[in-house]
Amino acid sequence: MSKARGRVTLPSQSGFLTETKEIMEKWGADALRDSDGTKLDQELKELDAKIYTTYFVARGHNDFAREHMDECQQMLLMSKRNLATSTELTIDFLDGYFREQVVPDYRHDPHTWWEVIDRTTGEVLPVSCWQVDTQKHLVLLEQAIPFHEYTVSFFVYAIWDPTQMYNHITNDWGDKPHEIPFDVRLPHSGRFATDYLTSWLKENPDTDVVRFTTFFYHFTLVFNEEAREKFVDWFGYGATVSIQAFEEFEAEYGYALRPEDIVDNGYYNTAFRVPTKAYLDYMDFIQRFVAKKAKELVDITHAAGKEAMMFLGDNWIGTEPYGPYFREIGMDAVVGSVGGGATLRLISDIPHVKYTEGRFLPYFFPDTFYEGNDPCVEAVENWLSARRALMRSPLDRIGYGGYLSLAYQFPKFIDYIAQVTEEFRTIYDNVKGKRPYCGLKVAVLNAWGRLRSWQTHMVAHALWYKQTYSYFGVLEALSGAAVDVSFLSFQDIRTGGIPADVDVILNVGDAGTAFSGGEEWLDPKLVTAIRQWVYGGGAFLGIGEPSAIHHQGRFFQLADVLGVDKELGYTLSTDKYFHTALSSHFITADAKDAFCFGESQHNIYALSRQTEILEYSDNEVHLAAHPYGKGRGVYISGLPYSHENTRLLMRAMYYAAHKEEAFRRWHTDNLFCEVHAYPETGKYAIVNNSNDTQSTVFYDGNGEATQVTLKPCQILWK
């Protein structure tokens, strides 16, 4: 039985009243929600609980959509690369795409809006050189150059919402109609969005919270010919484009967008790409439209006496909670999926809302809740990783999603979540509104800055990728660490300099990406500003290929700060004598086992005798520090998330900032334990982040030591 009630949202479904009441009691839930594919019947709505109702603004209204197929949402896609072997070439531009999701736009003249590009030269072909067969969906080139490659960039209509498509396939929805997305920028759809919400609110008097899922434009999710994901970018603006949007953009900005500004060589402007001016302009254009239109719906919701909640997923593009226009929407709450500490902070740190809510894993779907599987394994892992971040910046509410009838078949899981909800309420009561002790102010520097707070190196909302886990681990480590984290863009430094309260700048990522910076580092003003700041006592920590672009005989443009550079093969004739690692160092003092740098970087070498080499193997440097005037640089070749690497990162930051003497304030010597202090209240918590018993020496705010033992997963409040 729950000792307390509140701050927990439970998914339910029709015909599941008795079981819902039982779990509400066990978990102390005070809100009920439907999910994509479920509904709450009247008996459930009459329970003593706040009622969340999912609301789809631009999908789920097929009767309207079929009457206005010319207002379907659009996308710009790029065909496969096609090799010409003669002067004539036929391109099946839909090859590789799922034809139940997209159809070509022939309502607007392809010769006006499409592009055929010679990808060998980059030349855009004159429209006189190609024709479109609208019956067979082919582009016919008449003046191709043999053995050049060609692509077609073309507009399509999206005729199946990608999230509903995913759920349709995952949950085997059979003959359930395909939901058609429509574009509220267009006149009939724009009016329908406001008119339908007004009538819907009258028809749903039991709804307390309208859960907008989300507003208008889905993140870029395109399926292949086998109905499997072809391209997914959780930040992608690919589904915001339309002929009308292009025309309105040109009227406002004074220049026309090209299809290439969107398809971007087939990269589609993923968050890993350093954004172009045209793409940044287009994003700002979309964000302003979304904020204005979303505010209309939120105002209607408020006028009906309901709260407006936004789901941070699905159709969230343009809402950007850390962007300049989010405040104007007037949302009451944001809810999102919690994959770990970084995604929790992504939600919990959102400004300008009354409350935040996290959907914890696992979702109650058949891919997890099936006979023979133990969903508690995922639940424990998810809770422990997210709990670190809760101790720094708590959500206001937690909950789950999916089919409650599936979860109910696993009593062990139901009992475990009862423990989770109880512990969450305890954390919230002790932590909410209390500023935690922060030993350092850390700024993560990349091309996106604040706009992508807690969102670096994500592809599809914190899923694991071989090329990113060595960097995303930095965010995961920071999410629960006793540091104050901010996000800084290169443009921020150009226009305003480095904030005075920053102790450490982190630059993390592969060369050429938005997160490392690519061509941003060719700007002398930027490089000079950071060098001067570090020389005067600042700290720069680079992970992977920081400040990397080949220029003037350097690959790392801040190699002089870091004390290392990367061998590109151009300086193999230059002998490199510095390869002896120090036997001990402040940064490596807690290291007991072999270092784990993940995918790591290779061919890194020390520049001089002043470089403090801390790990050297396979004839390359993986960890180093370097004095630079009154400041320091530190280099790490990769940092996947682990307890050991979290400690390594903390030590590296304290060392770089010349604050070693403060390291043992509010500290534990056991890597699996952390302490979170709240000076305003005089409280602190020693946390066991593992599922095993741990003993640790705990250091209080004065550095005085005490031995404590913690049970598995225990939080010891003092």
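Next protein, fold it too.
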Amino acid sequence: MDQLKPRPSNSCPLTPLTFLERAAVVHGDCTSLVYNQISYTWSQTYTRCLRVASAIASLGIERGAVVSVVAPNVPAMYELQFAVPMSGCVLNNINTRLDARTVSVILRHCESRVVFFYSHLLSLVLESISLLPPNFRPPLLILIEDDDDDDDEADSISLSGILTYEGMVQKGNPEFTWVSPENEWEPMTLNYTSGTTSSPKGVVHSHRSIFIITFDSLINWSVPKQPVYLWTLPMFHSNGWSYTWGMAAVGATNICLRKFDARVVYDAINRHKVTHMGGAPVILNMLANYPRATPINSPVQFMTGGAPPPAAVVLRTESLGFVVSHGYGLTEVAGVVVSCAWKSKWNRFPAAERARLKARQGVRTLGLTAADVVDPKSGKSVKRDGLTMGEIVVRGGCLMLGYLKNPTETSKCMRNDGWLYTGDVGVMHPDGYLEIKDRSKDIIISGGENVSSVEVESVLYSNPVVNEAAVVARPDDYWGETPCAFLSLKEGVSPKPPEYEMIEFCRTRLPHYMVPKTVVFMAELPKTSTGKVKKFALRDMACKLGSMASASRM
């Protein structure tokens, strides 16, 4: 067989852009996208994407240049996930919740040539442009208008000759031959990490890695043909965990929502007969705690990830009709790579036990080569006892190419031993399922014992009055550190429970050393731009409370 080798006919570059082309043929007359009163078919979506890709190419932007998008889940945002790479450029989604300084840092770092921006975000974009250095070539701005726009902010620049998204749709060539990658390792997307503790890092993915993770995510979630997908997950979050391209592969109907509102979400689920949706555990929590929530008309598959969902939240949302699947991933792998593959025998367990099992991250997906929990110093696998903690590592074809212009950080996490070190702390259970215990920086070391903040938070979430919970380290003169709990309460809870009551609640459910020694009540926990709790801010607050004196020894 030595004479056999790759040939042009069997070594075409892998790219998920072909999914849209196929959808236009197979599902051409089927609804692709719904937003307020707007509705498109897959044939129309394909044509619109070709037109926009053609218009981008006509601007004289060189192949491989970065094109940025600052927009919520509106039709243009979905189309640009295809149109930008179809023009030969690299797609850079920017989180709409970032401040102008951070947006400016991103635009400068990636040398963005074009910025598509949503009308309501005009001030953010203009301020970020104003912060660029005088000698930096500013990107071309293209306005994404909204037919239901009741904000006149964008009208003030309408006379300046600024290009508009719909203008590019009209201008573009519907017969445009989209730019296929010359090889599958060409960069396709650039997403920046949230940068909560340092400058954001630019994660670059190839056409190949996005193709693999998209296929993998569909198989892992058992997504059927023509589902109805509700976009509660922001598309700027790692390209919607790659489901932007995945929904084209299965000819789905995409229901777009500009912003999350529990009432609107429940209405959209019943009105459009939604079958699938996803988001961080905070979305599950908001759906579970919506005061007027009633069981939905038919089951909705909900993929959650980003942090371990508390079992109490899973239990509540499933009682409303959601079927929760828990996945684990990070920007560096572009989607879900570890999931809690469900075993039929678990269906016989009590609801609380099923919810606890679903809170585990699980096993590697089919598209990932391997996942493990290792000692970060020796690189050896930890004991499979569900107790010994180590760092979660992964390897496979869906991993990033690396961090843009940052070889040091790339080498730090993608080591020569063949693993990507995630920075997440976990354990491996005897059955081969792994479970996240914390981010490495969030582990609390109290009296020499490692305390998982996630585990303490899970217990706090089981308290019926708790809406949100976050646990961080507070300095202690005797123990070194002790757990400090920050809580927000559910709507209508009055009076506020005393601190000792919450501590006693934990004491009956946790080992002694894991029980919070301090409880702080807040109206709402501070969040990052990606909706995660700002634990670094809470740690600062805990430090300002001062070290606990020796009188606190227990």
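About the second fold: Residues 262 and 519 are 28 Å apart (CA to CA).
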